[in-house]
Amino acid sequence: MVQIPKTPASSAPRSVPTSADVARLAGVSRATVSYVLNNSSAVRISEPTRRRVHEAARELGYVPHAAARSLRAGHSRTVLMPAPGFPVGPLYSRFIGELQWALGRLDYTVVQYGTAGPQGDDAARAWAELRPVAVLVPGSGLGPQGVEILKRSGARAVVTLGPEPVDGAHALLMDHEAVGHRAGRHLYDRGRRRIGVVLPAEPGLEVFSAPRLEGVRRAVRGTDATVTELHLAYEEHSAARLAARWRSLGLDAVFAYNDEYAMLLMRALQDEGVAVPAETAVIGADDLMLGRLLRPRLSTVHLELPSGRELAALVDRAVHDPGARPERHEVLGATVVHRESS
Amino acid sequence: MVQIPKTPASSAPRSVPTSADVARLAGVSRATVSYVLNNSSAVRISEPTRRRVHEAARELGYVPHAAARSLRAGHSRTVLMPAPGFPVGPLYSRFIGELQWALGRLDYTVVQYGTAGPQGDDAARAWAELRPVAVLVPGSGLGPQGVEILKRSGARAVVTLGPEPVDGAHALLMDHEAVGHRAGRHLYDRGRRRIGVVLPAEPGLEVFSAPRLEGVRRAVRGTDATVTELHLAYEEHSAARLAARWRSLGLDAVFAYNDEYAMLLMRALQDEGVAVPAETAVIGADDLMLGRLLRPRLSTVHLELPSGRELAALVDRAVHDPGARPERHEVLGATVVHRESS
DNA sequence: TTGAAAGCGATACCAA
DNA sequence: TTGGTATCGCTTTCAA
Q1: Which UniProt keywords apply (chains A, B) (predicted)?
Q2: Which residue in chain B is spatially nearest to A126 when comparing CA positions?
Q3: Closest partner residue to A66 among B13, B130, B290, by Cβ?
Q4: Are residues A255 and A183 in the same domain?
Q5: Is B27 near chain A, with CB under 8 Å?
Q6: pTM
Q7: A142 φ, ψ to 5°?
Q8: Are residues B29 and B53 in the same domain?
Q9: How many contacts (CB atoms, under 8 Å) link A and B?
Q10: What is the mean pLDDT of residues B13-31?
Q11: Which ranges of chain B does DSSP label H, i.e. alpha helix?
Q12: How many domains does chain B have?
């Protein structure tokens, strides 16, 4: 074995230092290095030795190898979640941020796994390769099979955040059907009977839009009100086209999927001379700042996501007691905020 | 060693299957399992054996252990990037998505590391523990020290995306100073002389807002125009307060940081009876859909982020040739889109 | 065509 | 107080 000389200048591509290198430089064994660097309380190491080890580690720029460590330990504290595959709003961003912070406090490392390529069970297998201690899956896309794969690979907790519970996994149920229901109910109560529901043309949003539509349907079931699906892309001319044939649709209200689509559509309607809310009532969802700034002020369905702290606590509980019966929580608070557009 | 009996029902908490288990069940050696499952072309395995191995792997629900694999291999194909610590706009979301997809095509695994706790060099050390083959760092917050730590730990490429290059790392320079400069220039050219610049009160945005402000300053340096800093939180009443004292500020133009703050402020100004653009010109940045829908239509600075494909290619190049001189690319295309508000 | 065994880096048990 | 060493799961060289 060649001893690589320590170069004073830092341009030589040295090989990655290991704990053995630290041990060599400090003149102690690898065991001692491990004890010192991990502050092992089981063993008492003399102060001079500690110093020498720390010194050597610093000098070499030693950083422990997570893979080796968790291989040896037989477990990691990695919480994996697939990265969202579509632009997320401020609500969700904040939620993720909070969650990461809260899990960080509990000494977990959160890792968002790049969403590309594998789908369904293959995705679950890819995640399982990392042997995360817990997996958080937003949206649907994970089936009972996937849950089984993850658990078999050592995941002590699998939590889904989505419209439906999945066998074997804890579920934070985000009932988007209820969002639609609230919106539909509100419009119906305001005397509207011919209700349009916007379905975004952008892919990946069906998970949310389909249940929202269904919620509106349920809200007016058994009444004389009708529900009409409206496909709308998030583009000005798509909205203009829809607005152009608006009067032929004979609608007196529209649930616009969310505030952004609502703004897009409302603008197009106004440009077309359709009076809001007189001729057509408009309601969005998400309660973005945006809506408050529009004229008329946009009515919306305010959504309350679970706090990151709560979810972090759930994860921690589940990790400690993997055998427990899967928890099921209804977490999407949906309340109508009535402003001027409806 | 206790042989765990195969249970027909799947509720028993079996231990995680390893390649040795697969080998045992298939009646072959672990080497053979590895050959088969990795489609090793160096060795030819008989068809019946292959089948038996695949069968056994499927039956046990075997998933390889990434840590063990990369430990043995001495490298991984993980590209790490810290997860953004603040709500990101659609621009950045799309960029990340593209990037993940493009790197996925090149067989890298993208992992967003949860931003909590460690800062500065400690963060770099935490990332280094995962031994990523490449690290992508948006924003500032990584210094030359951090780069050195990462490289010493085997990262073959470190790429920063931010306002300033960092020694030793490739840099995708996002020149926010230029954004401010374009905006300032535009306002000046439109005859405005008393220019306000919005600085968001929200933390974490200084990285962008400071250089944008500086850009405006530079644009009017040596002229008779003045620049006034305006602190604004992303809340209605903050905007209302600012609007209430607007006339006392004597400004005839404002660069509102971005389109969202611009919308917020413009609405407040209009509510206060300040005519836009007659009395005060307003320009935002980011060219969101939003701005097109406002009345007057919002002038903005359109930003062009690098395509994910380009960045993926840069990463791949850098990984293949770690010794190469750090590349430096100006990637933030900034062009004024003049609409009606200025 | 298949198997035995070394070794990646870190940890923790048992001795000394 | 410190060191030697087996071990985690996997890949790969060398032999058989």
Answers
A1: DNA-binding, Transcription, Transcription regulation
A2: B63
A3: B130
A4: yes
A5: no
A6: 0.89
A7: -115, 125
A8: yes
A9: 163
A10: 91
A11: 19-26, 30-37, 47-60, 66-73, 90-105, 120-128, 144-152, 176-189, 206-220, 236-244, 246-249, 259-271, 289-293, 308-320
A12: 3
Q: Is B154 on the interface with A (CB under 8 A)?
A: yes
Instruction: Assign residue A181 the CATH number of its domain.
Output: 3.40.50.2300
On chain D, which bases lie within 7 A of the protein's CB atoms?
1-5, 7-13
Residue A170 lies in a domain: yes
The single-letter code of the amino acid at A88 is V
Question: Residue B280 region, left (φ>0) first, then alpha (ψ -120 to 50), else beta?
Answer: beta
Q: How close, in Å, is residue B219 to chain A by CA atoms?
A: 31
**Domain assignment of residue B281, yes or no:** yes
What's the CA gap between A216 and A236, in Å, rounded?
25
**Pairing state between β B253-255 and B281-285:** parallel
Rounded to an integer, what is the distance from CA A2 to the centroid of its chain? 49
Say if CB B194 and CB B228 are below 8 A apart.
Answer: yes
How far apart, in whole angstroms, are the C-alpha atoms of residue A115 and residue A85? 6
Taking chain B, what is the end-to-end CA distance rounded to the nearest angstrom?
A: 78
Residues of B in contact with A83 (CB under 8 A): 96, 100, 110, 112
Q: Nearest residue to C11 (CA, C1')?
A: A72
pLDDT score for B220: 98
pLDDT tier, B118 (very low <50, low <70, confident <90, very high otherwise): confident
C-alpha distance from residue A298 to each of A93, A268, A294, B209, B263 (Å): 22, 14, 6, 30, 15
Structure confidence by residue, pLDDT tens digits, A105-149: 999 999 999 977 678 899 999 999 999 999 999 888 899 999 999
Q: What is the pLDDT of residue B87?
A: 77
Is B335 domain-assigned? no
Residue type for position A308 = G
Q: Taking CB atoms and an 8 Å cutoff, what residues of chain B touch A115?
A: 97, 100
- How high is the pLDDT of residue B266? 98
Beta-carbon separation of B267 and A87 below 8 A: no
8 Å CB contact between A254 and A276: no
**How many beta carbons lie within 10 A of that of residue A147, not counting itself?**
22
The Cα B60–Cα B188 span in angstroms is 70
The residue of chain B with its CA nearest to that of A116 is B101
Give how far Cα A113 sits from Cα of A67, A152, A290, B170, Å.
17, 19, 31, 23
Nucleotide nearest to B32 (CA to C1'): C2
**Nearest CA-CA partner of B238 in A297, A89, A289:** A289
Measure Cα distances from B132 to B12, B45, B117 in Å: 36, 33, 20
